């Protein structure tokens, strides 16, 4: 049980990085590749920063060093604010020709699911860094588990479904027919 909990915690960082990268990349890639590429590279560097995974665990008291986690959370909250400030405005003005396609409706549905997870993640960051909410590692581990493995909303599964619609079902080819 303890090993499983620690594994979930380890996956939390990966899920956070994946979610940030995914949302910024998918929603804005069509508008400005250079900005997105820079943010993505900066995110990779942030992932490799020593503080990200330098966490201590007290096996006697069964407690984590909250200050380290708070620093990591603040780092990702600041990066999220940077994404908001630097990324192009989210919009569908360039994709209006797809509105009549049922495949596009499916993609939009999947994207709303991803955006919902992202907004939940950002709100959790904000609540801890700005409102001083208590750091509940079990909630973070559970959220990471949902992001990575829930059959209905897991980010990897959602991206696979979007990819299948765009590539396998020829979404953009259908737009020209």
Overall 3D geometry?
A: globular
Low-confidence stretches: none
Ends distance: 54 Å
How many strand segments? Answer: 2
What gyration radius follows from the Cα positions, in whole Å? 18 Å
Number of helices: 8
Biggest sheet descriptor: 2 strands, antiparallel
Could you tell me the strand content as a percent range?
Answer: under 5%
Helicity, in percent?
over 70%
Average pLDDT score: 76
Structure description:
By secondary structure, the chain is mostly helical. It has one domain (2-175). Helices cover 72% and strands 2% of the residues. It has eight helices and two strands, in the order αααββααααα. The protein has helices at residues 2-28, 33-48, 50-53, 66-86, 102-129, 137-149, 155-168, 171-175, and strands at 57-58, 63-64. Strands 1-2 form a two-stranded antiparallel sheet. The longest helix has 28 residues, at 102-129. The relative contact order is 0.16. The model has no long low-confidence stretch (mean pLDDT 76).
């Amino acid at each position: 049980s303890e090993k499983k909990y620690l594994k979930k915690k380890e996956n939390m960082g990966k899920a956070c990085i994946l979610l940030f990268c995914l949302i910024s990349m998918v929603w804005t890639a069509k508008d400005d590749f250079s900005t997105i590429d820079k943010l993505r590279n900066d995110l990779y560097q942030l992932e490799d920063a020593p503080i990200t995974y330098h966490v201590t665990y007290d096996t006697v008291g069964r407690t984590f060093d909250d200050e380290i986690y708070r620093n990591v959370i603040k780092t990702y909250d600041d990066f999220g604010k940077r994404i908001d400030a630097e990324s192009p405005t989210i919009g569908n003005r360039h994709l209006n020709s797809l509105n009549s396609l049922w495949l596009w409706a499916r993609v939009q549905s999947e994207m709303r699911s991803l955006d919902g997870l992202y907004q939940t993640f950002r709100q959790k960051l904000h609540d801890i860094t700005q409102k001083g909410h208590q750091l509940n590692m079990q909630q973070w581990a559970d959220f990471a588990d949902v992001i990575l493995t829930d059959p209905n909303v897991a980010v990897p599964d959602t991206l696979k479904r979007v990819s299948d619609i765009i590539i396998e079902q020829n979404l953009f080819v259908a737009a020209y027919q």
